[in-house]
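#lab-general

N.A. 3:47 PM
ok so I finally got the sequence cleaned up, no stray characters, all 84 residues accounted for. can someone with queue access submit it? mine expired

B.Y. 3:52 PM
send it over

N.A. 3:53 PM
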Amino acid sequence: MGTHWRILLLAILLNATLAVGALARTVYLADGGIIEAQKVWQEEGMICLLLNRDSLITFSPEEINMQKTFAKKKKAPLPPVRKK
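B.Y. 4:20 PM
back already:
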C-alpha cells in the first residue's frame, strides 16, 4: 500500500512542476531579449513582471515590444453548421 501512495505523491509533484512552466508568460524586450515571467501586467504606465515570488521588475513601455508581448490570441474558426 505504501508504494501506491509514493507513486501518487510523485505524480502530484510532477504535475505541479509541469503546470508552473505552462503558466509562464513570455515577455519580448525591444532589444530582442526574452524573459519568462510568472505574471505580467500593466500598472500606471509601467509594465510589471513577477519573475518568482521574490522578484518583481518594472519596465517602461519603450523597453518592451508591446505588439509581440500583448498580442491578441487568434481564435480558431468554428466549423460550419450542418443543416438537416
